[in-house]
Amino acid sequence: MNILRFILNLQFLVLTSVTCFCFVSVARADNLPFIICYENIENIPYYYGEGNDVPKTKPGLYVDILDLVSQRLKLNIVFHRAPWARCLKQLELNRVDGVLAASFKSERAKYSHYPMNHGKLDAERRIVNKSYYIFRRKGAPISWDGKKFNGTYKVGVQIGYAIIDFLKKHNLTVTETPSVQRGFQQVQNNRLEAFATLEEIGNTLLMRYPNRYSNVEKVTVPLTTKPYYLIIGKKFYQEHQNLSESIWNELAKIREREMPNLLINYSVTTQ
């Protein structure tokens, strides 16, 4: 059994044996552990810091939002950081209960649940909308007019990112890299003509490391804009269906009513 999950479940069993002798999965969680994995690279304003640790101050919008969910549903949320592909794999293996934040892919839906409404994806219960952009080497000819590229190029993407299929459909050669930083460095060093990533991640790297990536620029037209969700593992959803639905409902309420105030801490706006 996964060590982190074993410890959390043991704590939960001790707690419930003291306070009550049974647990019924309802909309309020009674301190049920819920392990969420999110990426270990910075993505301002959604999450800050690099590595496995969650910053104690200003951890990012996602953590702030989920802290509110935790308080309102009495859910014991535990954050776990890892590379994106590893987060998804851990969800597939039921080593974590949820992953932040994922666009829809049918492959991911095989091992996780998205919020649905009458059998259709419920974008009203997303966390945010996000856009992918091309970040190219300065002077590189690659461009995107909103519908098509002006040629065929070799473009980098981080392993596991949803934009890979989109690029392949537009006849680009895709090179997967272990991180966005690695991909930007290849663009900087003329090993790639461009790199596709989420706008916030690319902007953060250009802002934080202007000298390191002095030869990289953003193409101004977005490749695509999609809703992004907290996806919940099959096992957790099956055991706590009502609670899972309540989590998505609370996320939607917070996004609509409280996100503007939360964003004041980070001096940015989002959708």
Labels describing this entry:
2 domains; D-Maltodextrin-Binding Protein, domain 2; ten-stranded mixed sheet; 271 residues; 36% helix; two-stranded antiparallel ribbon; alpha/beta
Architecture of the largest domain in CATH?
Answer: 3-Layer(aba) Sandwich
Q: Got a strand count?
A: 12
Distance between the termini: 39 Å
Overall mean pLDDT stands at: 88
Molecular structure report:
This protein is α/β, with parallel strands linked by helices. It has two domains: 3-127 and 227-266, D-Maltodextrin-Binding Protein, domain 2; 130-225, Periplasmic binding protein-like II (D-Maltodextrin-Binding Protein, domain 2, 3-Layer(aba) Sandwich), CATH 3.40.190.10. 36% of the residues lie in helices and 24% in strands. It has helices at residues 3-19, 61-73, 84-92, 106-109, 163-169, 180-188, 199-208, 234-239, 241-257, 259-263; strands spanning 32-39, 75-82, 98-102, 112-113, 116-117, 120-121, 128-137, 154-158, 173-177, 194-198, 216-218, 224-233. The strands form two sheets. Strands 1, 2, 3, 4, 7, 8, 9, 10, 11 and 12 form a ten-stranded mixed sheet that branches. The protein has a two-stranded antiparallel sheet with strand order 5-6. Strand 8, helix 5 (163-169) and strand 9 form a beta-alpha-beta unit. The longest helix is centred in the N-terminal third of the chain and has 17 residues, at 3-19. Residues 6-26 have low confidence and may be disordered.
